[in-house]
Amino acid sequence: MQLALAAYLAFLPCYSYSEPYSYGTTNNAAIGGMTWDMYNVLPNVAGVEVNGIFYRYSVEKQTEDDMRVTVGNDGVFSLTDDWSGLPSNTITKGLSFNNIPASSWGDGSITVDGDGAVRDPKVIYTYRIDECADPQSSPSCKGYLHKVTITDPDLYDVNDDEAVKIATQETDLLLVKSDKPDEEKETKEKKSRLELGLASAENALTIGIDQSAMLESINSMTNLAMYYNTQISGSQYEDAPMLVDAELPENKRALRNNLAQQALHAKMVQQQYEDQ
User: Which of 10, 28, 176, 265 is deepest in the core (most CB within 10 A)?
Assistant: First the structure.
């Protein structure tokens, strides 16, 4: 049995046993009978994928009898061995799969159709486990979130503050106010407010009178009637002497200066053309 299993595993596809996968084989799934539940066969962890199956059994039958034995799993595969016309014997087979998730595998079974019996069935599955199916399973997994440890903070209790304690102490209200109103004080305050009101009214009246007198004084200064009747002594003023029109002589020096400047300008313009 061990040699057969080793030979079968040698023919399975080669796998790199590097992170994040680990590999393994199950116990004999048919040890308890001809049917089995994959939930009890495969590891009960996340990320399990089946990549192969190895089975072996013996048959007891008459050579001339018809007999067919089917090994399979619901929803994944079914393989039938036809023993019709064959003598009793033992068979060993293996199949490989492309990493089918454990959730896809239904119940397994070995069924017999015809005359004969199956003896010593052995069914072994090979699998791999994705160690990072849950990223939090290892810090080396992609998407791993480092846990942050939060310590209990020091809470501030306002009731323990000395300033708060002082502020919340009971106060003798008799020290800050009296239950009976101070009638004498109220009388003085009313009298004071009345005097201030009368003084304000008197001041307002005085200010109004002073302003009226000031306006009359200003208006008297703008009376221009007395200027309209004023006479200026004197007689007719004659025109002042004017210059007699005459012809101004030409300024020969200015003429020469203008001509010299014009000649210099023409020379500079001509020099620009010659430089080009």
Answer: 28
Instruction: Say how far apart CA 51 and CA 126 lie, in whole Å.
Output: 6
Amino acid at 208: G
* For residue 20, cis peptide bond before it (omega within 30 degrees of 0): yes
Q: What is the pTM of this model?
A: 0.48
The C-alpha atoms of residue 19 and residue 44 are separated, in whole angstroms, by 20
Distance CA 158, CA 164 (A): 7
Query: What are the structure tokens assigned to 22, written together?
Result: 């680990």
Whole-number Å distance between alpha carbons of 71 and 80: 6
Q: Looking up tokens 């003598």, which residue turns up?
A: 87
Q: How far apart are CA 269 and CA 276, in angstroms?
A: 11
Tens digit of pLDDT for each residue in 210-245? 667 777 776 666 666 666 666 666 666 666 666 666
Pairing mode, strands 89-101 and 48-60: antiparallel
* Contact criterion met (CB below 8 Å) for 51 and 95: no
Task: From 120, 140, 122, select the one nearest 132 (Cα to Cα).
Answer: 140
